[in-house]
Each structure stands twice: as C-alpha cells, then as structure tokens.
Amino acid sequence: xxxxxxxxxxxxxxxxxxxxxxxxxxxxxxxxxxxxxxxxxxxxxxxxxxxxxxxxxxxxxxxxxxxxxxxxxxxxxxxxxxxxxxxxxxxxxxxxxxxxxxxxxxxxxxxxxxxxxxxxxxxxxxxxxxxxxxxxxxxxxxxxxxxxxxxxxxxxxxxxxxxxxxxxxxxx
Length: 172
Known about the structure:
By secondary structure, the protein is mostly helical. The protein has seven helices and no strands. The protein has helices at residues 56-59, 74-91, 98-107, 117-126, 136-145, 148-151, 155-164. The longest helix has 18 residues, at 74-91.
C-alpha cells in the first residue's frame, strides 16, 4: 500500500509491487440466469428501451408555465407527454431532452392557448386518468398515436403540420 514520504520505512525490506492475477484459460461468457439469449426481444408493444429515461422527470417542471391544459389534469398530461417524449428519445438511442417533451406537448396542443376544439375533445378522451398505473393500455395508446415517422422529423415540420392540420401529426 502506498504511504506518504514522511512515514518511516524499513530500508532493508523489499517494496511490494502490483502483480496481476494469474490468467484464466478460455474466454468469458455470460451464463447468468437473467441474461437474454439473443439480446432484447423485439415485437409488438415491447417498445424500445432508451438510456437514462428517468431524467425526463427533471425536465417536466421546466415547461409547467407554458401548458394550457383545459380540462385535462396536469398529471394526466404529463403522463401522456412523457411516454411520447421517451418514445422519441429511444428512437434516436439517447436520453430524453427538453425538445422531446416540448414536441410531445405540441403534438397534443398543450402549448397552444387556442388549441382546436376537436383536438381538445380528443385529448380529453385519450388522457383521462392515464397517470394511474392501472391504465397502461391507454398510456400505450397515446404513445402509439404519434407515429415514429413524425417523431423522427424536424420540430419545424411538426409545428407546420400542427398549424395547418393537427391530424397530420397523429394516427388516430
């Protein structure tokens, strides 16, 4: 173990040096019970796990002042926007950023003080009580309502779609 210079040492003793452990024959292989053969499964409604997804909850309060919720409760709007934002972040293989959340709110008209009446009616139906863990299917339907092709486009295109016809951003 290293010691400071001022600690007296016995000059007759040999100083120990680092020594690697003996080499093991053969290569390492994952044989733990929880390992998935072939990697993460892919299929319908399995989604795609992205890194550091919990970070989105640090971003949520940053947009609270810009939200126009109507009759949708804040927690329901957040739950729906979070799944859409995480879907976009996972599509790009990265952690969520504020632009993912802003885009999710924009698609459903939560950033528009004068959102179209038919969109407001639609989102009130879709976002009703989805903050509850018992409503996974409904939350998943909100995520599925925004196609990956839309999430992969530039935010300016999504803004243009929303301004001309909000239905272009959603698959209802």
